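Reviewers asked in the last cycle whether our approach scales beyond single polypeptides. To address this, we selected a multi-component target totalling 686 residues and predicted its structure end to end. The input consisted of the following lines:
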Amino acid sequence: MSDFRKGSEERILLAHGAGGSLMHRLIKEVLLKYLDSEELAPLDDAAELAVDGGRLAFSTDSFVVKPVFYPGGDIGSLAISGTVNDLLMKGARPSHLSLGFVLEEGFLVDDLMRILESIRQTCREAQVGIATGDTKVVNRGDVDGIFINTAGIGSILPGVSLSGRNAKPGDVVIVSGGIGEHGIAVMAERNGLKLGGDIASDVMPMNEIVLPLLERFAGSVHALRDPTRGGLAASLNEIAEASGVGIVLEESAVPVREPVQAVCELLGFDPLHVPCEGRFLAVVDASVADAVVELLRNELACPLAAKIGDVADSEGGFVQLHTTSGGRRVLDMPAGELLPRIC
Amino acid sequence: MSDFRKGSEERILLAHGAGGSLMHRLIKEVLLKYLDSEELAPLDDAAELAVDGGRLAFSTDSFVVKPVFYPGGDIGSLAISGTVNDLLMKGARPSHLSLGFVLEEGFLVDDLMRILESIRQTCREAQVGIATGDTKVVNRGDVDGIFINTAGIGSILPGVSLSGRNAKPGDVVIVSGGIGEHGIAVMAERNGLKLGGDIASDVMPMNEIVLPLLERFAGSVHALRDPTRGGLAASLNEIAEASGVGIVLEESAVPVREPVQAVCELLGFDPLHVPCEGRFLAVVDASVADAVVELLRNELACPLAAKIGDVADSEGGFVQLHTTSGGRRVLDMPAGELLPRIC
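The resulting structure, written as structure tokens, was:
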């Protein structure tokens, strides 16, 4: 039975924004009940729209990361990369972004300038422009520092059709690099952990990886997803559910850099739950899987890219983990909120 | 000299988000220094993009109104109407919106449902769909209840070219209805004033007014703007500055409903500074001005539509007010923050 009944005293929990099972219930049992639309229904990272005869991708994200500056990035580079990457995951070449600031009265103008400089640089890297914007200022205490929303549009490449719904039995799952670096960098900064420069956020716009990949393998790539909130575990469960397929994940094949593994052990996190902001999962036809990994590793500067799993022919909708120690278990959608304000 | 120097201890003030002169300085001296782009430069309510051979309008707004429910509207109807109206001001037929929530831990699910119902109804009225969305939840105290960002796109009507830069000497300025109703309704609710049902927010999507107007008068309409933050005074100053023209405003011609006037006198507000969310200013060729007012009044359910001013041949960039009492003065861009969190 749904928790979400009219007239109940039910309240929003942190976990409702965590990318896991509670968030998916909020989306399905509340948001989609009111907002159902053809474009929204696939719950991909971006929507596909038919506009003026073209195929446009459209996406939005709000960024509430705390602290706003952390090793390897800040809320500015994150806000641009996040929406650029969501458009790429739909097979689009990002072209224009909107930028909405909500600022707390008293926020340092110097910090705003530092964030803007980072936005400018990331826009240049991603070859996108800020086309339209909005700035609101609220009273001290009504927001914690700065929140940023970006929305973005881009044209979907010809011959490309990507959706979490498109995974097919026999497909291979590939990850583009080591996981968890964004989440661990932010958590470490927030908690004052000294990591000796070993961990920096992976945040980056992935145009120069994803676009060449799609240009080469167009129709053989079935789904792309960037494992942000909820990490790899959430993204794989989303694909399994949307496609109605099983996914078998080989834990030992998942690239996790040693310092990330160490901090995860220290803090009790499973790296499979920790967000990335510059990595993607690709579900590809088995016939091109080796070639995709080779292209990523040798030409697209992704040395840790690897095949990490297969889409199984079994009963659909869940992810099975073959653990490093030889066991097998269901890899659930993360339930609670481990990492609030991580993006 | 700019207040905004690197290394200063300058801080963001509420007035930097108020729609007036301090906000325009923040935009020009900080934001545009980093984000300059062809699309952003005109500072219209929406940007015009060339995408896939079509002309697309693209706009964004964040909504932080407090309280979230008030006579005549709520943050949900406001978030949809605000972005829909910004697209209309660029001469576009709104088609798709994005919707980003930032929720405070502990927010009542019932209130979220009430807001979603209002979003659904307003989308239906405006004939737009929510194509993509995002939901973040932050810790209690990190945001005040709920903030919403919407971005939107729509195709610009053929033969229509609207910009605050297009006002020409001899043009006539028209307003579509009584001003200030949104701002006064929100302020009254916030301060517990009992208005006996006399004032409700004017918030509404204006498709059914603006689209027929543009279909009939296409090229003779030069600029449209909805006077939200900073009210009529800010919008007229923006147009005067962007077009390098003078504007003469006849105070006695500006429609202000009696209860709005009364509350303004009580609280010490100038109605010319109070935001509307369902009214627009049109700068039109003098040859069609009477016909535009007639269409608005008789066919488009805007009984208070009126000619309120002229674009003057004089030295440009400012607004002159002919006051009700027969005086003349410059109508400045509002400077400070009278009405925080009004939209």
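Chain B has a mean pLDDT of 94. We regard this as preliminary and will revisit it once experimental data from Aim 1 are available.
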